[in-house]
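Appendix C reproduces, verbatim, an entry submitted by the partner laboratory led by Prof. M.T., so that reviewers can inspect both the input and the predicted structure.
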Amino acid sequence: MKHLASVVWLLALLLLAGCDTQPPVYKGQFLAFGTLVDISIAGLPTREARAATDVIEDDFKRMHRAWHAWDPGPLGRINRLIQTGETFAAPPSVLPLIVRGAELSEKSDGLFNPAIGQLIDAWGFHNNDPSGHRPPPQETIDRLLAAAPKMSDLHLDGIRMRSSNPAVQLDFGAFGKGYGIDLAVEHLKELGVQNTILNAGGDLRAIGSKNGEPWRIAIRHPSGEGVLGIIRTSGSESIFTSGDYERNFTWEGKRYHHIIDPRTGYPAVGTRSVTVIDDNATTADAAATALFIAGPSRWYEIARRMGVDYVLLVDTDGNLHMNPAMQERVELTDAGYSIQLSPPLKPEPGR
């Protein structure tokens, strides 16, 4: 009888342990915005996680069709109408991005500028694979710089809009992915997902945890190979990196990357990569681009203007620039980096 009681007790413990076992982390993948989107969902049965992933994939397909600057669709139509100088109705699928893009552009002192689509096109970076391209003629760059397209050239009155500058061509490549991730995460919450990572080509937003443990995120080394450091997420956070390794081409022995400085018309210089952490993916996406262009000399100023809390910039000499809060968050894979710490981006507690 004692032996039977022990067996019954052991079975009861196993049953209780089984009740506490978390479902495995579901992993899905699909193509959107010209990149692979990976989704990890914890705490849900596989069937529910797969259904939520299918819904989000459909969301991303709709966003891609609406926001592509050159394909037929709402944004392409806006870009054609902008050139007329006439007033027209902005489609609801695009209007929020225009409003948000104008706000972020102003905060960045114009370094983040979604109005320079013609420059992006001239460089060939509207294609996902720019290999085999060459720099545009200097006269083309000079002409587009003289036209000085900017978001403030767009005038909105409700859903009615017009442009006072026909050189404006909207390109949401520098923040559309972040905006899409924000929308998708909110939709996932509505579907009952509380713990997930939505990762679009290395740029991501994470909510909740991985079965009680923080999500661990690798920061890509600016060489394009290997890992620079690890960040553990806390609550709801977005981690975005802009790097010169992402899209580029080589012409006559010189490499040209896709992050165009709107002040010069050429790829930004002085920076290899920038990683930003923010609770909002849209802000993190735009800020990573703006701080890359700002470079080592202005990143701190622009980061404060844009209100981000955590920044890591790698300059072309391999030095790391970061604020103290980011230094506390990032686990570097190599102790030999030269680190230049800025003052805090936000007032420290108790001061």
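Residues 281-306 form the longest helix (26 residues). Additional entries are available on request from the coordinating office.
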